[in-house]
Every structure is written in structure tokens, then in C-alpha cells.
């Protein structure tokens, strides 16, 4: 009697059917439950099978749309990773074994390290000027002058793998177009390097073996002009005043007081400079290179440079600091042939220039090359290709776009167009088409004011 | 309470009915699912198709996200939207610019007045301007810009060795002629602005030079004004839409060319004009799929329908690969290296390998991305090796970005000649004027 009515309250007395649970035999109860469970399991199983056949069981958990997205992104990432990596290991520091073995017994000095590495850009050449003269006289159809102007070779480059930041490649492309435009207008050849010619002198030092190689391969070239990939031409009308440099072999932007009095590590800029193709330049390259080899040499050299140059942070030796150190410590040997140029922006630090472009357009005109209309706007520290630079990414990218368009307007002007604004990729017509285009061309002056 | 209304028996009947219905419904659902999974449900498509559609919809998403994240925000200008040109109606004829009828004499006058910029560099070698380009906006595909960069480096190298100038276009000169038609207004503007240029060489951004030693046979083209890769029979007899290729062609700077551009342009303007023209082209040309008019089909159509007017000045070149379809070339590079040498320009060592259909910059093209990108790397290295050998280096393999030395440094660099003679080739020599 105790269990009767438990869990069963309504009208149990009305029907004649067994209504209390306790009246139904236990076995039957269990059987029923079991049947229910069987059916449930069977249905569940069939459902799973069907769903698996259609949209995949992995997608049953969580949103299906997200996982498609995820899979596509993973696909692209995988392809990108494969493209970016090369299966070869990084080149070893030639001294690393010695260093670690003897580190307890011996502290390497820079001089010892240099001697141990014994790096050389190549076999010593002492008669390059004569070799070159002979060659030029034997090859009159490859003269070192064209239309009275010495031949210049602009050299630039970037690493062979895709940028860590995809937008970096886009600005490398725009920077290359910018250089192609300037060089076409001024009859300059371009070499775009993507190869690591010397694994020891990797990074910013890579320009040294490259410059030497190009000098020796192209005796018809009088000037080798190195330009960083993050430097843009912003004055398309400006012509280098080569006559000024008749008696010099290295033209580099900088400030003599910062160089000689303060020994500042930014007294000169090696992002845009010219080397004459001559023996003196080969010698300078040989004297410049020793601080470059990767590893312990570069590290120890970095310490010396930080100790001797004003304002230099502590990091491994870079080519710019090394050159400043070389020129200041061996002034008598080199400085007579070095022209420290600051009458125009052979290199123009971007931060002080990019916001003034509109003002320049209003007040000045191309062809000046200086602070009124900078020749080169150099995005030092932006590093759009790498993962992080010294400045906020957006400011850098926005400014690079402006600099590019500022220069591009001077090219588009030749065809009657201009950008709609310094940030806009769209263009508008600024000069109507005519059936007498050459009359217009005759009157066109690259140094005339720009109207936007 | 329900039981009080209906009665116990009734209630149980209803309960059983409901349970049966539940079972029926469940079975029906399962049946539908299974049917859908196997034979599809009509217009809704199979889940497989759903999958593909979803994939496609979201494929652009990650790239767009990257691009949007990184692209500088241009200041929104109302004028941008207003400047979208209204779609041209079919009755409104399009013109590339004011009609010029005396271009040959205008040009001759100019050249006479400016002897410092002659249109011929030597007796046989014309001044050539290579024209290529890409969009001013970052690619939707994150590696697209990297391949555009490699492609332009490749062109810079060929043109430096062959003394050819380059114009890299990033401007849309005429919004109506967007897409593949954008080259027409550009070519016209360049021809008129550069009278000193004798030949304009248009080359797509997805085409790469793979024979650095091959100099174009300029004397062969003296009687012609337009040189394209193609076959006479395929164009004039078969009317095949791929009988010629407008991805790499030469156009002489003369009145005939301006007239040709004017005759070529009408099918181009975006909108109903282009769509209707596309239908005509698909009807007339062999094997052409249904899509809006493209410049290549329009060129075939023009040559076929106005043969007497144009064909005598058009040379369809098939002796070497002025355009070489990548599909039949890229797997044979190792074989070519083993058996042949640069300078041939043809099937043995193609001048140009053209990655038609790959579209590395945009959304996915007609071929699998991986194959396209890997093969573009190989083609690039294949060409780059010929440049690097000038300086004593080569790529470690056709797939590797790394290089290794193949010629030691020497203290007498001028006595060493590079194997292919590309450092100081004849075709780069300046005409030696007696001073």
C-alpha cells in the first residue's frame, strides 16, 4: 500500500486499465524502456550517418560557415608558409664553433675576430682604373657617356621571399614603378636585386658585394647609385648635378657638423648614395666591409660603433654606422673624395616632408630637389615589408601612398592626368585631348608648376 | 485536466496518434535528408554544391580582411561616387579621343626637330617601349603583389639587356574601358606622347620573359604595323577566338595604328555595349564561351570581318613564343636546360611564358593556386638564372630562391665573358657616331 499512488495522482480509479506502475510487471517495464532506448539509439545513429554523408560530422559542432572560412584561411596560410620557407638551414657563423669552445678561456676582441674570419669581398684589384680605361677604348660601342652625360646605374632590391606583411609587397611594387619612371625620364638603367650574393654579408650589408660585382661587370657605367627600396622619387624633374662631383668619388647625403664634430650615427645616410666606378671605390668597399660578416664580428663591431658614435643604440654593426666610423677615423685617407651633399635631398627623411606636399604644390614647382620640393622621400624606419617598424603602420602606409602619388602626378602630367587627391588611386583628366598632341608636348615643361 | 475533458481512452488514443506522427515526421525528415544528399533537391542543389558555394563566398573573405586591415583608408570623397560614368547606350558611339589624320607627318616633324631622341637606335633596331601594368590597389590575394613584383623585376632585366624602355601603368585612364580594355586608351596616350617610340610592346603582368638572350627579329617586321603571336589559319579560316593572343604584341607608332585602335575600341565600353558585343563575338567566333566582349576576341573579329583593310599590315608570328601558354611549357624547363640553350625563343627555349588564367592578384583563377604560384616561381628562376649567370651565380634549383656561385671572383674581371654574352651584347651596343 505504501507505493500506491506515488507519481500517479489523476483519476486512477476511473479506468479499468492497470494504472499504477507497481501493478505493471517489472519485466515489462524494463522491456518498454529498453525498446524506447533502442529506437532512440537507432534513430540517432541513422541521423548521424545521414548528416555525416551530407555535411560532415566535424561540422556538427559549432557553426559550419566558420569552419569553411577557417579551412580556406588555413589553405592559404599553408601555401604562403611553403612559399616563404626554404628548406635550407641558416648559414652558420664561421667562428661559432671556436667561440663556444674557447669562450671560457678567451674573450674575443673585434680585431681577433676579424682576423680569424678573414673576410674579403674578392681578390684584391689594384689597377682597376687602367683595366677600365683599356676596356672602354676597346669597346667604343659601350661608352661611359651617353649624350654628354655619364652613365648611371641605379641599384635597388628586396628579399626574395614574400613580405611578412602583404601590404609590404604592394609598396615595393609602387616603389619600383616610381624608380622606373624617374629612370626612364633621365636615361638611367636599373638593376633590381633579389639574390643574396654573399651569405656572410646579409641584410643591410648585402649592398656591398652587389655594388662591387656590378662595378666590375659594367665598366661602361660611371656611377653606381644605390637606393633603398623604401625611398621614393618625389621630384621627377630634378637632374643630379654631376658636374659638381667631377673630383669626388662618393656622393652621400649628410651634415658635415654632425659627422666631424658630433660623430653622430645619423650624420650620413646610406639609403641613397653614388659611387664612382673606380679604384678608389673598390678600396673604400674593402675598408668598409670588415665590420659586416654576420655573427660575432658584426656583434663586436656593433659595440665599438655604439661606443664611438653619438646617439647610436646598442645593436649589431650596420653599414651606415660603419661608414661614418670609417670616414671619421680615417678622415685624411678618404674625405677628400667624399662629397657630403645637403643642398638637395639626395635622401629626405619622410617625417618632416610628407605633410607638406600640398603646401609645396601650391607654392613651388618640381626641379628644385630640396626642402621646397624634395628629390627623394625616404621612409626610414617604416619597414612595411617586415612585421614591425619604428612608426605606426597606418601613418607609414598613408604617407607612402601620398609620396608615391606626389611623384606620380609629375609623370601623369605628361599624359594629361593627375591623381584626384594625394591619397587617391583614382585619376582625373587635367588637360583635354587634342588632335595636335605634339604642340602640347613641345610646350610641356617638367619643371612647371603642378595644378591639381 | 485534459483527461477530464476527453476521457482516458481518448487521451491515450491521441497520445498514440501523436507518437505515431512524431515517428512519421522523423522518418520523413531522414528520408528527405538522404534524398538530398544523393540526388539533390532541385534548385537548392546538393550539399556538396552548398559546400562549394560557401567556400567560394568565404574564399575572398580572409584576403579582403587582410587588405582592409592594411590598406590606408582614403578620405571618403563624395566626388568618387559621382564620377562613375553612366553606362553608355548602344546608340552612343565611343571614341578614344579627337580624330587625328596626319599623325605620320606630325611625328616625322617632331623626330626631325629632336635628333637627340631618334626613333631608331641603330639601322635596324627601333626604339621600343614595353608597356605593362596592374591595379593601383593592393591585390586581394596576399601573395599577388609579390608575384607582380617578381614579374616587373623580370621585365626590368630583359629590357635592360635589350635596351628597351619600360612604362608600368597603374592608372585607369578611362573608367568606361576598365578591365582588359584598359590597354587601349593607355596605348593611344603613350603613342601620342612618345613620338620617338617606334614600337610599343604591350605585355600582360602575368607574362614573364624566359629567354633573356633572344632579340626580336626587327627586320622581319619592317613591312608590318602589328605583330601578335598567332596562326593565320586559326584566325582567318577557323575564326577561333584564341587564334591570336593580345597578351604580348607589338604596335608601330603610326597613323595606321591610331586607326586600328579606333576600329578596335567600339566593343569595349562597359555595360550594354560590351555585353551585346560579347554575344556577337560568341556567335561569330569558334569555341568562344559566353561572356562580355574582350579585347582579344574583338581583335579576331576585326581582322576577320575587315580583312582587306587591316590584314596586310598584321603579322601573326608563330616562329617563336612572343606569347607562350604556360601549361605546355613549365614542366619542360629541366628538359630544355639539358638539351638546348637560350637565344632560341621558340618551343625549345620560350621567349615568353604567359600565365593565362592564373590571376595571382585577384580571386582564384581557372587553375589551382598552388600549381600557378609554384610554376610562376619556376619560370621566374628559369629566366633569372640567365641574368645571374652574367654575375657568376645561379639558383640552387628552379624551385629555390637561394643562389650559389658558379664562377669565382677574379682580379681580372674584364677578361671573363659571361656564357651567354649578355653583359655587353650586340643588341645593346650604341651606334658609334664619329664625333
UniProtKB/TrEMBL annotation, chain A:
<dbReference type="GO" id="GO:0009969">
    <property type="term" value="P:xyloglucan biosynthetic process"/>
</dbReference>
<dbReference type="InterPro" id="IPR008630">
    <property type="entry name" value="Glyco_trans_34"/>
</dbReference>
<keyword id="KW-0812">Transmembrane</keyword>
<comment type="similarity">
    <text>Belongs to the glycosyltransferase 34 family.</text>
</comment>
<keyword id="KW-0808">Transferase</keyword>
<keyword id="KW-1133">Transmembrane helix</keyword>
<dbReference type="Pfam" id="PF05637">
    <property type="entry name" value="Glyco_transf_34"/>
</dbReference>
<dbReference type="GO" id="GO:0005768">
    <property type="term" value="C:endosome"/>
</dbReference>
<keyword id="KW-0325">Glycoprotein</keyword>
<dbReference type="InterPro" id="IPR029044">
    <property type="entry name" value="Nucleotide-diphossugar_trans"/>
</dbReference>
<dbReference type="GO" id="GO:0016758">
    <property type="term" value="F:hexosyltransferase activity"/>
</dbReference>
<feature type="compositionally biased region" description="Polar residues">
    <location>
        <begin position="10"/>
        <end position="22"/>
    </location>
</feature>
<protein>
    <submittedName>
        <fullName>Galactosyl transferase GMA12/MNN10 family protein</fullName>
    </submittedName>
</protein>
<keyword id="KW-0735">Signal-anchor</keyword>
<dbReference type="GO" id="GO:0005802">
    <property type="term" value="C:trans-Golgi network"/>
</dbReference>
<keyword id="KW-0333">Golgi apparatus</keyword>
<keyword id="KW-0328">Glycosyltransferase</keyword>
<dbReference type="GO" id="GO:0000139">
    <property type="term" value="C:Golgi membrane"/>
</dbReference>
<feature type="region of interest" description="Disordered">
    <location>
        <begin position="1"/>
        <end position="27"/>
    </location>
</feature>
<keyword id="KW-0472">Membrane</keyword>
TrEMBL record, chain B:
<dbReference type="GO" id="GO:0016758">
    <property type="term" value="F:hexosyltransferase activity"/>
</dbReference>
<keyword id="KW-0735">Signal-anchor</keyword>
<dbReference type="GO" id="GO:0009969">
    <property type="term" value="P:xyloglucan biosynthetic process"/>
</dbReference>
<dbReference type="GO" id="GO:0000139">
    <property type="term" value="C:Golgi membrane"/>
</dbReference>
<keyword id="KW-0472">Membrane</keyword>
<keyword id="KW-0808">Transferase</keyword>
<keyword id="KW-0333">Golgi apparatus</keyword>
<dbReference type="GO" id="GO:0005768">
    <property type="term" value="C:endosome"/>
</dbReference>
<protein>
    <submittedName>
        <fullName>Galactosyl transferase GMA12/MNN10 family protein</fullName>
    </submittedName>
</protein>
<keyword id="KW-0328">Glycosyltransferase</keyword>
<feature type="region of interest" description="Disordered">
    <location>
        <begin position="65"/>
        <end position="98"/>
    </location>
</feature>
<feature type="compositionally biased region" description="Basic and acidic residues">
    <location>
        <begin position="74"/>
        <end position="86"/>
    </location>
</feature>
<keyword id="KW-1133">Transmembrane helix</keyword>
<dbReference type="GO" id="GO:0005802">
    <property type="term" value="C:trans-Golgi network"/>
</dbReference>
<dbReference type="InterPro" id="IPR008630">
    <property type="entry name" value="Glyco_trans_34"/>
</dbReference>
<dbReference type="Pfam" id="PF05637">
    <property type="entry name" value="Glyco_transf_34"/>
</dbReference>
<dbReference type="InterPro" id="IPR029044">
    <property type="entry name" value="Nucleotide-diphossugar_trans"/>
</dbReference>
<dbReference type="GO" id="GO:0033843">
    <property type="term" value="F:xyloglucan 6-xylosyltransferase activity"/>
</dbReference>
<keyword id="KW-0812">Transmembrane</keyword>
<keyword id="KW-0325">Glycoprotein</keyword>
<dbReference type="GO" id="GO:0035252">
    <property type="term" value="F:UDP-xylosyltransferase activity"/>
</dbReference>
<comment type="similarity">
    <text>Belongs to the glycosyltransferase 34 family.</text>
</comment>
Amino acid at each position: 500500500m505504501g507505493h500506491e499512488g506515488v507519481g500517479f495522482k489523476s483519476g486512477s480509479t476511473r479506468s479499468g486499465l492497470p494504472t499504477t506502475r507497481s501493478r505493471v510487471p517489472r519485466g515489462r517495464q524494463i522491456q518498454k524502456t529498453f525498446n524506447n532506448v533502442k529506437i532512440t539509439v537507432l534513430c540517432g545513429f541513422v541521423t548521424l550517418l545521414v548528416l555525416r554523408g551530407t555535411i560532415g560530422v566535424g561540422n556538427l559542432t559549432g557553426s559550419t560557415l566558420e569552419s569553411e572560412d577557417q579551412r580556406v584561411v588555413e589553405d592559404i596560410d599553408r601555401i604562403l608558409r611553403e612559399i616563404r620557407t626554404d628548406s635550407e638551414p641558416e648559414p652558420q657563423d664561421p667562428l661559432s664553433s671556436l667561440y663556444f669552445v674557447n669562450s671560457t678561456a678567451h674573450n674575443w676582441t673585434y680585431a681577433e675576430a676579424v682576423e680569424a674570419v678573414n673576410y674579403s669581398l674578392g681578390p684584391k684589384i689594384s689597377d682597376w682604373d687602367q683595366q677600365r680605361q683599356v676596356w672602354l677604348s676597346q669597346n667604343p660601342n659601350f661608352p661611359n657617356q651617353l649624350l654628354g652625360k655619364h652613365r648611371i646605374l641605379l641599384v635597388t632590391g628586396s628579399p626574395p621571399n614574400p613580405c611578412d606583411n602583404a601590404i609590404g609587397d604592394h609598396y615595393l611594387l609602387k616603389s619600383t614603378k616610381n624608380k622606373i619612371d624617374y629612370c626612364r625620364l633621365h636615361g638611367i638603367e636599373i638593376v633590381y636585386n633579389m639574390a643574396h650574393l654573399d651569405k656572410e654579408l646579409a641584410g643591410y650589408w648585402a649592398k656591398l658585394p652587389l655594388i662591387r660585382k656590378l662595378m666590375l661587370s659594367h665598366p661602361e657605367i660611371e656611377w653606381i647609385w644605390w637606393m633603398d627600396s623604401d625611398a621614393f622619387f618625389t621630384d621627377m624633374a630634378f637632374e643630379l648635378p654631376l658636374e659638381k662631383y667631377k673630383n669626388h668619388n662618393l656622393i652621400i647625403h649628410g651634415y658635415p657638423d654632425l659627422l666631424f664634430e658630433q660623430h653622430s650615427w645619423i650624420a650620413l645616410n646610406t639609403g641613397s648614395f653614388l659611387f664612382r666606378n673606380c679604384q678608389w671605390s673598390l678600396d673604400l668597399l674593402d675598408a668598409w666591409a670588415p665590420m659586416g660578416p654576420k655573427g660575432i664580428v658584426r656583434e663586436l663591431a656593433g659595440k665599438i660603433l655604439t661606443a664611438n658614435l653619438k646617439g647610436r643604440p646598442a645593436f649589431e654593426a650596420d653599414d651606415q654606422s660603419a661608414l661614418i666610423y670609417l670616414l671619421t677615423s680615417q678622415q685624411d685617407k678618404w674625405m677628400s673624395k667624399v662629397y657630403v651633399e645637403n643642398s638637395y635631398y639626395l635622401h629626405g627623411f619622410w617625417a618632416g616632408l610628407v605633410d607638406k606636399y600640398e603646401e609645396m604644390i601650391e607654392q613651388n614647382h618640381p626641379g628644385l630637389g630640396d626642402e621646397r620640393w624634395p628629390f627623394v622621400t625616404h621612409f626610414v624606419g617604416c619597414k612595411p615589408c617586415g612585421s614591425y617598424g619604428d612608426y605606426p603602420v597606418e601613418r607609414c602606409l598613408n604617407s607612402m601612398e601620398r609620396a608615391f602619388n606626389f611623384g606620380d602626378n609629375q609623370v601623369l602630367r605628361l599624359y594629361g592626368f593627375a591623381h584626384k587627391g594625394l591619397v587617391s588611386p583614382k585619376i582625373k583628366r587635367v588637360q583635354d585631348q587634342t588632335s595636335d598632341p605634339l604642340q602640347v608636348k613641345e610646350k610641356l615643361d617638367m619643371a612647371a608648376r603642378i595644378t591639381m | 485536466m485534459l483527461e477530464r475533458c476527453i476521457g482516458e481512452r481518448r487521451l491515450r488514443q491521441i497520445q498514440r496518434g501523436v507518437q505515431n506522427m512524431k515517428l512519421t515526421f522523423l522518418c520523413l525528415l531522414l528520408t528527405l535528408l538522404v534524398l538530398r544528399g544523393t540526388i539533390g533537391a532541385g534548385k537548392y542543389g546538393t550539399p556538396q554544391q552548398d559546400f562549394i558555394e560557401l567556400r567560394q563566398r568565404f574564399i575572398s573573405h580572409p584576403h579582403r580582411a587582410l587588405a582592409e586591415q592594411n590598406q590606408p583608408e582614403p578620405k571618403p570623397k563624395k566626388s568618387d561616387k559621382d564620377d562613375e560614368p553612366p553606362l553608355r547606350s548602344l546608340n552612343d558611339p565611343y571614341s578614344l579621343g579627337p580624330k587625328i589624320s596626319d599623325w605620320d607627318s606630325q611625328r616625322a616633324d617632331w623626330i626631325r626637330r629632336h635628333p637627340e631622341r631618334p626613333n631608331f637606335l641603330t639601322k635596324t633596331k627601333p626604339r621600343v617601349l614595353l608597356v605593362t601594368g596592374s591595379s593601383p590597389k593592393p591585390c586581394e590575394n596576399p601573395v599577388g603583389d609579390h608575384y607582380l613584383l617578381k614579374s616587373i623585376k623580370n621585365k626590368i632585366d630583359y629590357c635592360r639587356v635589350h635596351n628597351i624602355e619600360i612604362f608600368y601603368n597603374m592608372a585607369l585612364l578611362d573608367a568606361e574601358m576598365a578591365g582588359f580594355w584598359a590597354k587601349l586608351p593607355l596605348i593611344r596616350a603613350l603613342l601620342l606622347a612618345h613620338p620617338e617610340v617606334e614600337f610599343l610592346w604591350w605585355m600582360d603582368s602575368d607574362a614573364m620573359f624566359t629567354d633573356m638572350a633572344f632579340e626580336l627579329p626587327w627586320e622581319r617586321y619592317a613591312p608590318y604595323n602589328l605583330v601578335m603571336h598567332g596562326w593565320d589559319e586559326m584566325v582567318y579560316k577557323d575564326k577561333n577566338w584564341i587564334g591570336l593572343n593580345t597578351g604580348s604584341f607589338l604596335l608601330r607608332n603610326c597613323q595606321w595604328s591610331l586607326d586600328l585602335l579606333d576600329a578596335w575600341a567600339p566593343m569595349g565600353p562597359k555595360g550594354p555595349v560590351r555585353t551585346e558585343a560579347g554575344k556577337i563575338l560568341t556567335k561569330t567566333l569558334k569555341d568562344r564561351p559566353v561572356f562580355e566582349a574582350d579585347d582579344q576576341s574583338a581583335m579576331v573579329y576585326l581582322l576577320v570581318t575587315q580583312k582587306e583593310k587591316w590584314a596586310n599590315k598584321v603579322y601573326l608570328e608563330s616562329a617563336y613564343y612572343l606569347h607562350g601558354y604556360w601549361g605546355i611549357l613549365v614542366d619542360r624547363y629541366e628538359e630544355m636546360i639539358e638539351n638546348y640553350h637560350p637565344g632560341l625563343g621558340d618551343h625549345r627555349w620560350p621567349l615568353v611564358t604567359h600565365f593565362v588564367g592564373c590571376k595571382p592578384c585577384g580571386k582564384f583563377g581557372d587553375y589551382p593556386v598552388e600549381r600557378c604560384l609554384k610554376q610562376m616561381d619556376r619560370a621566374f628562376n628559369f629566366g633569372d638564372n640567365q641574368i645571374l649567370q652574367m654575375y657568376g651565380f645561379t639558383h640552387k634549383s628552379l624551385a629555390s630562391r637561394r643562389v650559389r656561385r658558379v664562377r669565382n671572383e677574379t682580379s681580372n674581371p674584364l677578361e671573363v665573358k659571361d656564357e651567354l654574352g649578355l653583359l655587353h651584347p650586340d643588341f645593346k651596343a650604341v651606334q658609334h657616331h664619329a664625333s
